[in-house]
Amino acid sequence: MSILVLAEHHDGQLAGATAHVVAAAQAIGGDIDVLVAGENVGAIAEAAARLDGVSKVRVADAAVYAHQLAEPMGELLAGLAGDYSHVLAAASTTGKNVLPRLAALKDVAQISEIIAVESADTFKRPIYAGNAIATVQSEDALKVITVRATAFDAVDETGGATVEAVEASVDNALSSFVGEELAESDRPELGAAKVVISGGRGMGSGENFKLLEGIADKLGAAIGASRAAVDAGFVPNDMQVGQTGKIVAPELYIAVGISGAIQHLAGMKDSKVIVAINKDEEAPIFQVADYGLVADLFEALPELEQKL
Amino acid sequence: MKVLVAVKRVIDYNVKIRVKPDNSDVDLTNVKMAMNPFCEIAVEEAVRLKEKGVASEIVAVTVGPKAAQEQLRTALALGADRAIHVQTDERVESLGAAKALAKVVEDEQPELTILGKQAIDTDNNQTGQMLAALTSRPQGTFASEVAVEDGKLKVTREIDGGLQTVELALPAIVTTDLRLNEPRYAKLPDIMKAKKKPLDTKTPEELGVEVGSKLKLVKVEPPAERQGGVKVGSVDELVDKLKNEAKVIS
């Protein structure tokens, strides 16, 4: 068996999720190659080569892959997939955009967002917003899979894989990149942070999210939000934790002014320790919280910041 | 332009689901069903394009059992002009659905096809992308804004870290994200009128597609229950527990 892992990268850097996907590939077993596709991705390929368990890094460096648009990426992967039994990518917006396109081009099913490997053809994945766990078995010759990064521990970076170029430039007349608007943040990436503190509708306004910042700084935490807070316009939507936003599983998750709708729980209930701060003691969030504090967040947050 | 909208009948998103005792699947008997929320957004976007004079005709389509006609009638009440039902009782996975939809796209030749980004039952997030691949069309997934300009489609997409805008050649496939729009409710007179709008029923056999799946559902289990937690009385107690009991902060 041989496995191809599609590297995730942003702004010239290999994304942390890739090391988690390689861990999932190790759980399947077999030779692991990593594909780095993009423009000027030499440094990213070198970073990928350091991941433990990787035997070869294949580099597709061309302008057509610059923003990893689904149309050329699907074609590139479909051209390479013949050498492999499995193609894996992180269940990020890039992986979710590209892999189903590859699967359909190869006429195979795609298995989304696996959280465990049972065997080389059998995997576990959450369905119904994480309220049920399905075990699925694929009879396809090629398995195309996206991996929930937080469900696998990252591999170390002590490896030394070989790097080779892939001669596979494709044409793309279907789509083109126009622009990007990225939210700026100095904090750890939401999906990879060890501590996450999130605010909900109870925060009252975007201004009040500042109350979370001091605590986040002291804990080295990322700041998240519920869909209600995003829909109310308090914060941008890339901060959203939930079924339709980011899935996180940090060591500590602090939910502030969040009621705990199914949609939100799907994004954070695999956290190791959950703390809820809410003034409504009937809020469903208290049913999943390890530690609950029934209090007014406007009093509790400054006190918490001071005592940390 | 002609717009095709795919909708799916799923369990209502407010229902707390139950796993069957034999672990074969989720129990759907006597459970309230509805149109998948992302599909509602897709229908709304098509209707708004028609209201702006961009779309000339809206065709709603679904793949599924006889009861899924209810969701097509809902789409018709919301503003779709006619509907196509690909009727099957098989368990249809994304690839099968995409193959059936690809046949409908081939027959209807819509310039724009809109789907939801994912269905809240299987949480796959695959069908739109697969349909785009099967019809060799570009895809604008997780769209939060859609505009037709100079014969091209401009799609703003929600990506990790922010927003990305891409330009797609028409005909194209778009999948909706939550922030694309706020779907309207169907009005009673429109629900009555929708009963008279044309609804075509076809079978996968008539379309010449296999919708069965090579993906076997081995079992379905409830997720591991979290241990019931404790309520603390003060911020001091909370900090103490996190430091000394849970040991997650130092």
UniProtKB/TrEMBL annotation, chain A:
<dbReference type="InterPro" id="IPR029035">
    <property type="entry name" value="DHS-like_NAD/FAD-binding_dom"/>
</dbReference>
<comment type="subunit">
    <text>Heterodimer of an alpha and a beta subunit.</text>
</comment>
<comment type="function">
    <text>The electron transfer flavoprotein serves as a specific electron acceptor for other dehydrogenases. It transfers the electrons to the main respiratory chain via ETF-ubiquinone oxidoreductase (ETF dehydrogenase).</text>
</comment>
<dbReference type="GO" id="GO:0033539">
    <property type="term" value="P:fatty acid beta-oxidation using acyl-CoA dehydrogenase"/>
</dbReference>
<dbReference type="InterPro" id="IPR014730">
    <property type="entry name" value="ETF_a/b_N"/>
</dbReference>
<feature type="binding site">
    <location>
        <begin position="240"/>
        <end position="244"/>
    </location>
    <ligand>
        <name>FAD</name>
    </ligand>
</feature>
<dbReference type="GO" id="GO:0009055">
    <property type="term" value="F:electron transfer activity"/>
</dbReference>
<feature type="binding site">
    <location>
        <begin position="226"/>
        <end position="227"/>
    </location>
    <ligand>
        <name>FAD</name>
    </ligand>
</feature>
<feature type="domain" description="Electron transfer flavoprotein alpha/beta-subunit N-terminal">
    <location>
        <begin position="3"/>
        <end position="181"/>
    </location>
</feature>
<dbReference type="Pfam" id="PF00766">
    <property type="entry name" value="ETF_alpha"/>
</dbReference>
<dbReference type="GO" id="GO:0050660">
    <property type="term" value="F:flavin adenine dinucleotide binding"/>
</dbReference>
<keyword id="KW-0813">Transport</keyword>
<protein>
    <recommendedName>
        <fullName>Electron transfer flavoprotein subunit alpha</fullName>
    </recommendedName>
</protein>
<dbReference type="Pfam" id="PF01012">
    <property type="entry name" value="ETF"/>
</dbReference>
<dbReference type="InterPro" id="IPR014731">
    <property type="entry name" value="ETF_asu_C"/>
</dbReference>
<feature type="binding site">
    <location>
        <begin position="257"/>
        <end position="264"/>
    </location>
    <ligand>
        <name>FAD</name>
    </ligand>
</feature>
<dbReference type="InterPro" id="IPR001308">
    <property type="entry name" value="ETF_a/FixB"/>
</dbReference>
<keyword id="KW-0249">Electron transport</keyword>
<dbReference type="InterPro" id="IPR033947">
    <property type="entry name" value="ETF_alpha_N"/>
</dbReference>
<comment type="similarity">
    <text>Belongs to the ETF alpha-subunit/FixB family.</text>
</comment>
<feature type="binding site">
    <location>
        <position position="201"/>
    </location>
    <ligand>
        <name>FAD</name>
    </ligand>
</feature>
<keyword id="KW-0274">FAD</keyword>
UniProtKB/TrEMBL annotation, chain B:
<keyword id="KW-0813">Transport</keyword>
<keyword id="KW-0249">Electron transport</keyword>
<dbReference type="InterPro" id="IPR012255">
    <property type="entry name" value="ETF_b"/>
</dbReference>
<dbReference type="Pfam" id="PF01012">
    <property type="entry name" value="ETF"/>
</dbReference>
<dbReference type="GO" id="GO:0009055">
    <property type="term" value="F:electron transfer activity"/>
</dbReference>
<dbReference type="InterPro" id="IPR033948">
    <property type="entry name" value="ETF_beta_N"/>
</dbReference>
<feature type="domain" description="Electron transfer flavoprotein alpha/beta-subunit N-terminal">
    <location>
        <begin position="23"/>
        <end position="211"/>
    </location>
</feature>
<comment type="subunit">
    <text>Heterodimer of an alpha and a beta subunit.</text>
</comment>
<dbReference type="GO" id="GO:0046395">
    <property type="term" value="P:carboxylic acid catabolic process"/>
</dbReference>
<comment type="function">
    <text>The electron transfer flavoprotein serves as a specific electron acceptor for other dehydrogenases. It transfers the electrons to the main respiratory chain via ETF-ubiquinone oxidoreductase (ETF dehydrogenase).</text>
</comment>
<protein>
    <recommendedName>
        <fullName>Electron transfer flavoprotein subunit beta</fullName>
    </recommendedName>
</protein>
<comment type="similarity">
    <text>Belongs to the ETF beta-subunit/FixA family.</text>
</comment>
<dbReference type="InterPro" id="IPR000049">
    <property type="entry name" value="ET-Flavoprotein_bsu_CS"/>
</dbReference>
<dbReference type="InterPro" id="IPR014730">
    <property type="entry name" value="ETF_a/b_N"/>
</dbReference>
<dbReference type="InterPro" id="IPR014729">
    <property type="entry name" value="Rossmann-like_a/b/a_fold"/>
</dbReference>
